[in-house]
């Protein structure tokens, strides 16, 4: 029985009346009064979590209020409010709550009061935290969903303005249909916080505080009350179809919020991870460097091995100077030609090491990239003891100079498909010798960017339509199909599909970064988990991959550094946000760090408790989780997520025919070591269940010899694999009549759905009768059948049937969604008015309906006529459609009254390949009164820059002059003018390489206006503007008054930034004033200015002055460390006897008394001068580490001290190669792949911290060091050793369970000694190592 314990109130919910939860389409103007509580007669209507903390008190005016005196004894199951008073016996849907609140807490950042609602039980509800200051845990709207609270606010303010001893007015508005939540504070007209969420559509309401004291009074609630007696007693936890016609009509199903399918909103799960066991299925068979796995119907495993990763398939992080070229590649041929040019055949060797001389011909050229082959192995349990005992190479020879890694494999219907960029291979063993003797390229044109290692093709799976699906990371897509269609997404990752023979190829979805594996659920919905880009604060994302979505990522965003980055600045990576553009389909939820393997339980695998679960692995951290997805309108939400394992770094996973979950472990960190294993996760108690035994036997026997009656019966089987095999066999046989009969009349909904999919396969082959049957099913009484039929019609090449417009008005959001997708494929079956009506009624509430509507519009030629449509949401979708068409008519929307629509039009014109014909109209938006978001302004500025003519320059000048324009955008305009004469290789806004597509032909600057601009800006009240102006003048080689520059440089009242820029301009001016200015700047109070001046003296004309200044600094005790380091560094660069003498003196001083903070500079300077000075050479030799010092940090001891912690923090957070924050957590930032580093300097000394950077495998924390135990029986167990004595060995396995092994049973054991962390010495300089070490030493 499903029990929802509402803080003491036990309610049993019957399924047949879940529709009672449904609210009307619009909230009534006046909701019924539920309660009005002034506490004059007590608080009997409220039930506190700890009654001892609550009381009714008399106020000074004689009235009464409900007082919370502090945190009581109540402890919530997850991080959430500690002190609540819950309104008794009232379950509400829509409501409006108003109240008076007074805090009794002294001022602090998290001073708060709380209102909660939608309370299902202590672990599931919403609340608003009215906190004094805003951060991720304060002053937000939160949800508690079987986990610690997470913020869901679309918008909030800077903080709730609590005043001491003051009553404040508070209001909360909740609307179920749209998911709207609004929170008001004092100002009852404008909400201070807004969110949208539909997971809890009813529940109790409470007042209180997270952990503070306060008073409540005059609490009034108007709302729609739900009676417990009208709710369901059904306790079924089995997955329900998205719309279940058997229990409610289609009309009722749509009126009830989609989330209300169960928990009367939430699926209840009885899955128990403790029932799962991890077993090393490969036993003592080594599986070298595995990446992906697929099992055939006989239980044989096909595993890919990578040999080329990083050594042959290069990584851009080791070749950062290639980034501008790499971003511009659009075909595999571009990458090939580039390699040939950079590493020419026969030499000479590249100036920078790119590849080893692997073919040993004496030169390092592109031929060395062809020496190692990816491989596919086949593993088999020949003797049937449950452990693999045979491995053989199934296929190799994948090794051109642009071949990527073998990251995906799929066995299907006798073929083995493999994704090895730039190709998708179809392989077959025709003679039974265990090796592929037939091989063909099914599709090509993928993965042509160098980019990040691991962003390859993967995710091979079979779709319900019989097509092969796969994914590719952001290394690019540019394909010409067999039919001659071009698909061009060169800077994006995506999902593709085609028939098994390669025909009917298409890009299914795009804008993904690196979804490694794909999974279809029971109803053919496709999901994946996308990796983050290692930006600070960013997270991995669970995505519903519907046809045509753009998830927003472009590979050029990866390299933005400190520049404007749309991915982060415009919140493209986040779940739904109000500020996001409409072309984007955001993720459903955030997910596990380092997502890799991903699959779905086909029905009978593992145990019944894990039916309808997805399984996800995190690599290299070694965490595995399971979760479910519930229908939410036309989309889904994640639910019931829980950890199932930890410790085994599984990469690819797949279910075997025996119902076990198999995964590959490549035996350590990122470096290849030719080791690895295949693991099996299973529920031993269910392994021989009748259901799993039947599936195994059915799959092993095959389906070719089964008759029609059996195949049609199997279409209703509990296991998806059996249903699909039966469907595909009926299609092979061309058994139209059987499929028609099942689709029309079968009692099983799943059988009907599979028959519909089969009819779609026949329809795509040209069977008109199958298409006709599909047309008849569009009006079926089951909403899910209607949805699946329309989905199938959307994939047909032709559909000559009647109008599909009626589907746009269906009560089910899934039906409406697929109807719009069908119209995108068959626009003649609909009309513009119907699509516009769908969009208008949706009004942006369901983003997947918006997406489908925009797709339908994009298939039409009359979209621009919607420019005058009265509904903003319709116009917004029209702009998205015009973007998809690359239609210049999008310029008509630039003058729209709604800023969202203007922004959408601007991004459509500017981004990706741009719409050049609309660019002039966009540039004209740059006027003195332009009032828009940064996303719009920065693109409009860039449009003028890209046009490059005198008129556009004039607009930038006028905008920069205007003191009313936003400061940041004025600075952007000035910088654009500074770089006017030469466009950068990578775009100023989005980092795209548009060298092939430049718009300007003659970049002209109106010099007369420029002179007056500089004069005006040098008088600007903003010193940042004045500094930027000096930099612009210097960049454009414009002469400024040396006297004026000197005055600025010496003015101590000015900001350092401006003075530094004036000093730099003065050093490049042809004036002797700089020589008299420098000594004065040496005495400046600003250390930053002194350092900048010192660095400028590397210029040859200042060498004499530099030697004087360096001598002064090194002779003084009060010189800053930064100045001493820069001074010594300059001595290594400045020629001459005086500089050498100073360097000798410092070297001797260091050798005599040790100056560790400058040792690194001394080593570098001495090395630079050693070849010209024997005396310095001898001293340099003495600096080298003592031969007796065998510590791994010996060569790096000069990086122990003297680093800049601020620079180290920047490297830690943002460095492209190091990406430390990608694996480590500090406070709220980072991930849990590696150890958290909060307070690490308290626990570890400086040498340990440096050692962990330069030699991470030298000392691995025990909890990150796994041991594999080989038992006498031949089986293996892996885990962390917790204790050992003469009698037994105790491990903690992947699930945290204790495993006790008698020592007599142990044959051998091997401890993992390879850290997951790369050696930073390969990606950071010694100075950078020192700075990172300094940062770690600061973490106390």
UniProtKB/TrEMBL annotation:
Chain positions covered by the region annotation Disordered: 229-271
Pfam families linked to this entry: DUF7133
Single Gene Ontology MF annotation: metal ion binding
Signal peptide feature range: 1-20
Keywords, alphabetical: Heme, Iron, Metal-binding, Signal
Keyword presence, Endoplasmic reticulum: no
Heme listed as a keyword: yes
Composition bias, Polar residues: 229-239
Composition skew (Basic and acidic residues), residue ranges: 245-265
Domain Cytochrome c: 1203-1340
NCBIfam families: CxxCH_TIGR02603, Piru_Ver_Nterm
Name under which the protein is recorded: Glucose dehydrogenase-B [pyrroloquinoline-quinone]-like protein
């Amino acid at each position: 029985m499903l029990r929802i314990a509402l803080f003491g109130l036990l309610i049993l919910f019957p399924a047949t009346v879940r529709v009672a939860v449904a609210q009307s389409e619009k909230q009534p103007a006046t909701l019924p009064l539920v309660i009005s509580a002034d506490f004059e007669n007590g608080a009997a209507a409220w039930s506190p979590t700890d009654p001892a903390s609550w009381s009714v008190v008399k106020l000074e005016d004689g009235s009464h209020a409900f007082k919370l005196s502090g945190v009581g004894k109540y402890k919530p199951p997850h991080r959430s409010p500690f002190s609540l008073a819950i309104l008794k016996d009232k379950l509400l849907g829509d409501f409006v709550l108003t109240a008076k609140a007074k805090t009794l807490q002294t001022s602090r950042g998290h001073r708060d009061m709380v209102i909660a609602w939608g309370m299902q039980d202590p672990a599931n509800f919403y609340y608003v935290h009215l906190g004094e200051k805003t951060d991720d845990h304060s002053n937000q709207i939160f949800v508690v969903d079987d986990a610690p609270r997470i913020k869901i606010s679309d918008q909030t303010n800077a903080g709730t303005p609590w005043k001491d001893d003051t009553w404040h007015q508070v209001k909360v508005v909740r609307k179920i249909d749209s998911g709207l939540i609004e929170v008001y504070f004092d100002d009852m007209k404008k909400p201070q916080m807004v969110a949208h969420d539909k997971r809890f559509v009813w529940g109790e309401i409470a007042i209180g505080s997270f952990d503070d004291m306060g008073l409540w009074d005059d609490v009034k609630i108007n709302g729609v009350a739900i009676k417990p007696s009208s709710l369901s007693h059904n306790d079924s936890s089995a997955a329900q179809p998205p719309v279940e016609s058997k229990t409610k009509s289609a009309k009722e199903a749509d009126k009830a919020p989609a989330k209300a399918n169960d928990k009367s909103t939430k699926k209840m799960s009885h899955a128990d991870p403790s029932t799962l066991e991890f077993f090393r299925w490969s036993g003592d068979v080594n599986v070298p460097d595995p990446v992906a796995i697929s099992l055939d119907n006989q239980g044989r495993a096909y595993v890919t091995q990578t040999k080329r990763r990083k050594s042959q398939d290069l990584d851009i992080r080791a070749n950062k100077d290639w980034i501008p070229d790499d971003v511009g590649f659009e075909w595999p041929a571009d990458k090939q030609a580039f390699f040939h040019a950079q590493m020419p055949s026969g030499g000479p060797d590249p100036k920078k090491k790119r590849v080893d001389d692997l073919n040993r011909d004496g030169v390092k050229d592109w031929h060395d990239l062809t020496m190692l082959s990816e491989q596919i192995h086949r593993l088999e349990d020949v003797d049937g003891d449950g452990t693999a005992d045979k491995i053989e190479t199934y296929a190799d020879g994948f090794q051109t100079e642009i071949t990527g890694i073998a990251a995906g494999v799929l066995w299907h219907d006798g073929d083995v498909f493999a994704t090895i960029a730039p190709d998708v291979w179809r392989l077959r063993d025709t003679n039974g010798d265990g090796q592929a003797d037939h091989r063909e390229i099914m599709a090509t044109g993928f993965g042509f960017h160098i980019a990040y290692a691991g962003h390859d093709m993967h995710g091979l799976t079979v779709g319900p339509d019989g097509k092969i699906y796969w994914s590719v990371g952001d290394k690019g897509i540019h394909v010409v199909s067999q039919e001659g269609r071009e698909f061009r997404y060169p800077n994006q990752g995506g999902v593709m599909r085609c028939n098994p023979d390669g025909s009917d190829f298409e890009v299914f979805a795009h804008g993904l970064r690196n979804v490694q594996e794909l999974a279809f659920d029971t109803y053919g919905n496709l999901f994946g988990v996308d990796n983050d880009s290692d930006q600070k604060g960013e997270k991995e994302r669970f995505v519903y991959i519907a046809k045509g979505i753009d998830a927003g990522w472009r590979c050029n965003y990866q390299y933005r550094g400190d520049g404007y980055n749309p991915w982060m600045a415009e919140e493209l990576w986040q779940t739904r946000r109000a500020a996001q553009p409409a072309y984007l389909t955001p993720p459903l939820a955030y997910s596990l760090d380092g997502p890799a393997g991903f699959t779905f339980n086909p029905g009978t695998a593992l145990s019944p408790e894990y039916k309808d679960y997805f399984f996800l692995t995190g690599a290299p951290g070694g965490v595995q989780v399971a979760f479910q997805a519930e229908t939410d309108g036309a989309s889904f939400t994640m639910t019931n997520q829980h950890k199932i394992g930890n410790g085994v770094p599984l990469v690819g996973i797949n279910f075997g025919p025996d119902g076990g979950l198999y995964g590959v472990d490549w035996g350590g960190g990122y470096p290849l070591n030719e080791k690895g294993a295949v693991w099996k996760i299973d529920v031993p108690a269910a392994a021989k269940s009748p259901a799993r035994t039947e599936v195994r036997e059915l799959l092993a026997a095959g389906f070719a010899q089964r008759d029609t009656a059996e195949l049609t019966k199997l279409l209703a089987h509990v296991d998806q694999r059996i249903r699909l095999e039966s469907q595909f066999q009926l299609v092979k046989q061309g058994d139209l009549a059987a499929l028609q009969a099942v689709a029309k009349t079968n009692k099983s909904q799943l059988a009907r759905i599979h028959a519909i999919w089969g009819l779609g396969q026949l329809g795509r082959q040209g069977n008109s009768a199958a298409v006709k049957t599909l047309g008849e099913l569009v009006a079926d009484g089951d909403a899910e059948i209607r949805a699946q039929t329309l989905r199938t019609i959307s994939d047909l090449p032709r559909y000559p049937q009647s109008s599909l417009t009626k589907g746009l008005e269906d009560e089910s959001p899934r039906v409406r969604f697929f109807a719009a997708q069908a119209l995108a494929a068959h626009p003649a079956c609909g009309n513009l008015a119907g699509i516009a009506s769908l969009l208008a009624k949706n009004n942006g509430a369901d983003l997947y309906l918006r997406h489908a509507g925009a797709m339908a519009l994009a298939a039409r030629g009359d979209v621009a006529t919607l420019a005058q449509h009265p509904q903003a949401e319709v116009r917004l979708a029209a702009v998205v459609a015009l973007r998809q068409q690359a239609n210049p008519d999008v310029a008509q929307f630039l003058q729209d009254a709604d800023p969202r629509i203007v922004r959408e039009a601007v991004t459509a014109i500017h981004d990706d390949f741009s719409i050049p014909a609309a660019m002039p109209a966009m540039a004209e938006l740059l006027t003195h009164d332009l009032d828009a978001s940064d996303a719009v302004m920065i693109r409009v500025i860039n449009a003028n820059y890209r046009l490059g003519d005198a008129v556009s320059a004039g607009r930038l000048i006028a905008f920069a002059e205007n003191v009313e324009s936003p400061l940041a955008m004025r600075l952007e305009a000035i910088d654009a003018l500074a770089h006017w004469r030469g466009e950068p290789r990578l775009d100023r806004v989005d980092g795209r390489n548009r060298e092939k597509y430049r718009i300007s032909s003659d970049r002209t600057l109106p010099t007369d206006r420029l002179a007056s601009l500089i004069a005006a800006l040098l008088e600007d009240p903003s010193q940042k503007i004045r500094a930027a102006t000096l930099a612009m003048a210097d960049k454009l080689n414009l002469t400024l008054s040396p006297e004026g520059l000197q005055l600025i440089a010496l003015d101590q009242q000015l900001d350092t930034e401006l003075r530094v820029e004036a000093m730099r301009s003065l050093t490049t001016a042809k004036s002797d004033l700089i020589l008299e200015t420098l000594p004065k700047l040496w005495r400046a109070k600003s250390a930053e200015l002194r350092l900048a001046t010192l660095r400028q003296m590397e210029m040859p004309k200042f060498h004499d002055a530099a030697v004087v200044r360096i001598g002064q600094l090194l002779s003084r005790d009060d010189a800053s460390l930064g100045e001493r380091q820069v001074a010594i560094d300059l001595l290594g660069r400045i020629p001459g006897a005086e500089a050498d003498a100073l360097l000798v003196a410092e070297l001797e001083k260091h050798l005599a008394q040790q100056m560790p903070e400058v040792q690194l500079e001394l080593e570098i300077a001495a090395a630079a001068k050693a070849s010209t000075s024997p005396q310095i050479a001898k001293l340099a030799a003495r600096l080298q580490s003592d031969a007796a010092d065998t510590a791994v940090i010996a060569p790096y001891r000069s990086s122990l001290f003297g680093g800049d912690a601020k620079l180290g923090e920047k490297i830690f957070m943002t460095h492209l190669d190091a990406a430390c924050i990608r694996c480590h957590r500090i406070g709220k930032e980072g991930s849990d792949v590696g150890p958290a580093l909060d307070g690490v300097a308290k626990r570890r000394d400086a040498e340990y911290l440096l050692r962990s950077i330069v030699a991470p495998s030298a000392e691995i924390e025990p909890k990150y060091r796994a041991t594999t135990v080989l038992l006498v029986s031949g089986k293996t167990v892996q885990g962390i050793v917790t204790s050992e004595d003469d009698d037994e060995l105790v491990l903690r396995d992947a699930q945290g369970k204790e495993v006790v092994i008698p020592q007599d049973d142990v044959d051998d054991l091997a401890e993992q000694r390879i850290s997951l962390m790369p050696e930073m010495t390969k990606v950071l300089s010694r100075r950078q190592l020192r700075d990172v070490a300094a940062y770690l030493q600061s973490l106390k």
